[in-house]
Every structure is written in structure tokens, then in C-alpha cells.
């Protein structure tokens, strides 16, 4: 019996070695990580775009669909790739994690091309100019004519945004919130003294004839240097170059400017 067990164990060991050796020579299928982002998006049939509620770039239309300059441009880009577009609201401060985790395929939401963004993402060419402006209740705006006069105020800012960076640079008190729309709500409700948001959003949402007619935007915190918007993809993604081609073509054929005129941002468009 013992002799039989020894022989059986020996046979099993030989079989195991042969099996292992056979597996080591079997070629592995390429993983999705080894394919291009363009191929990945086209294979699944959708370009998933990370956004926040940001009028006039990405916001809900009357029927609940996402519209805006960026939304319309992203939809047209997806169509040029032969795929559908899907918009997902994200926490702006988590945009890089969402991108690298493949929850989304790009960040296309009036995103400022900061050093943090360009070092962590494969970014498109800049397509739009912007600055960060101060938003205050209209009845007190005249009391704060300079940057220095703002030092004792509490600012609502979108977490991870260029607005937060500008307030932090000044060492002023900032309360990070979900998005720029929430920052405006904080000021309107009186839970924050002021907000710093994108000039393009302020122009669309603040002042007479808007939903925030008791608020005004005053001066820019970075007018001298300004900032530019771009679209971010995963580092090394071939979709960035593909988008650059699309932006150039859209600018040349006039479709980009047509979208811009629809949403009142034509003055900010950068020639491609």
C-alpha cells in the first residue's frame, strides 16, 4: 500500500510539472490595458464623459438631457468616432481617480489646464479662455473693491478647482463644495460670504435676468495670467491627438463657433 502511494504521488508531481511547463508556453490574450484608448472606446461603443453641472458648458436641458458648449462638442466628437456619448456627473476633486479607474474616458467640463492636470492626464490643445471671478451679493459688492478688501470673507469654492487654487494662493478662508453651482447656492443662501467661479459660468448664471439676480460678479483674481480650458484623457491616451484633429476640423468648418454662439461663449474660443 505504501509503495502504491509513493508511485501515485510521483506520478502526480510529474503531471504537475508537465502542466506548469505547458502553461508557461501558452501565449496570453492582450488585456484592455494594452489596447489603445480609441480602440477601447470604439469596442464598447461609448465615450464616457466626466462632467459637473456647469452652465454654459454642461448642464441639464428642459428634457433632462445634458446640453452646453462642452456637451454638444463632446457629442459631436463621439459621433465622429462612431460611438455614443454618455455623461456622468463626478466629484470634481476625484476626476483623476475616476479617469484612471476607467469610470470615465475623459474629463470635458471647462477644465483649466493646471500643472496638476497636465501632469496627470493626456490633455488636448486648449480651446477656450477663462478667468476666475469673485461673486458677491449685489447689495454689498461696492464694499469690496479690491482683492485686499476680501481677506476676512469666507469663500465657497468647488473642491479641486482653479477657483479654490486662487483663494488658497491668497491664504483666504475657503469652504470646498461639490461644484461651482453649489458655490453659488452657498452665497445666495448666505452660508458663505462670496464665491470664486469661472467667468464663463458667472456670465451665464449671475446677475440681472438670471436665477441669481441678487448676486453679481466683480473682478478677476487671475486676469493678468488668465487660464485655458482643455479636455483630459488617461495618460498616454491616443484619444487626445484624435480630439485635436477634431477640434481643428470643427474650428475650420465653423461648427465649433456655431456651438459657441448657441451658448454665448464665442468670444472665449481659441483658434485651432
Provide keyphrases for this structure:
single chain, 272 residues, alpha/beta, six-stranded mixed beta sheet, five-stranded mixed beta sheet, 10 helices, 13 strands, 39% helix, globular, disordered N terminus
Tell me about this structure.
The chain has 272 residues and is an alpha/beta fold. The protein has ten helices and 13 strands. The protein has helices at residues 2-24, 37-44, 69-81, 95-100, 115-120, 162-169, 180-189, 199-205, 239-253, 255-263; strands spanning 46-51, 59-60, 66-67, 84-89, 106-112, 122-123, 128-130, 132-137, 154-158, 173-177, 194-198, 215-220, 227-233. The strands form three sheets. Strands 1, 4, 5, 6, 7 and 13 form a six-stranded mixed sheet that branches. Strands 10-9-11-8-12 form a five-stranded mixed sheet, sandwiched between helices.
Amino acid at each position: 500500500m505504501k509503495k502504491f502511494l509513493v508511485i501515485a504521488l510521483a506520478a502526480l508531481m510529474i503531471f504537475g510539472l508537465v502542466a506548469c511547463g505547458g502553461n508557461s508556453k501558452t501565449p496570453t490574450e492582450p488585456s484592455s490595458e494594452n489596447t489603445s484608448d480609441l480602440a477601447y472606446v470604439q469596442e464598447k461603443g461609448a465615450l464616457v464623459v466626466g462632467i459637473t453641472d456647469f452652465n454654459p458648458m454642461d448642464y441639464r436641458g428642459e428634457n433632462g438631457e445634458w446640453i452646453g458648449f462642452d456637451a454638444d462638442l463632446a457629442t459631436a466628437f463621439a459621433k465622429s468616432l462612431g460611438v455614443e456619448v454618455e455623461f456622468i456627473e463626478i466629484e470634481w476633486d476625484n476626476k483623476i481617480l475616476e479617469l484612471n479607474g476607467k469610470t470615465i474616458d475623459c474629463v470635458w467640463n471647462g477644465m483649466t489646464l493646471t500643472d496638476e492636470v497636465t501632469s496627470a492626464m493626456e490633455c488636448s490643445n486648449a480651446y477656450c479662455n477663462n478667468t476666475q471671478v469673485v461673486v458677491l451679493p449685489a447689495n454689498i459688492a461696492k464694499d469690496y473693491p479690491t482683492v485686499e478688501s476680501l481677506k476676512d470673507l469666507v469663500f465657497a469654492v468647488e473642491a479641486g478647482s482653479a477657483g479654490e487654487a486662487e483663494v488658497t494662493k491668497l491664504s483666504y478662508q475657503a469652504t470646498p463644495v461639490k461644484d461651482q453651482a453649489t458655490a453659488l447656492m452657498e452665497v445666495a443662501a448666505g452660508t458663505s460670504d462670496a464665491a470664486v467661479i469661472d467667468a464663463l459660468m458667472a456670465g451665464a448664471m449671475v446677475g440681472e435676468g438670471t436665477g441669481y439676480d441678487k448676486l453679481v460678479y466683480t473682478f478677476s483674481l487671475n486676469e493678468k495670467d488668465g487660464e485655458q480650458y482643455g479636455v483630459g484623457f488617461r495618460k498616454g491616451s491616443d484619444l487626445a491627438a484624435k480630439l485635436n484633429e477634431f477640434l481643428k476640423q470643427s474650428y475650420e468648418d465653423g461648427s465649433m463657433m456655431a456651438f459657441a454662439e448657441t451658448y454665448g461663449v464665442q468670444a472665449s474660443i481659441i483658434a485651432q
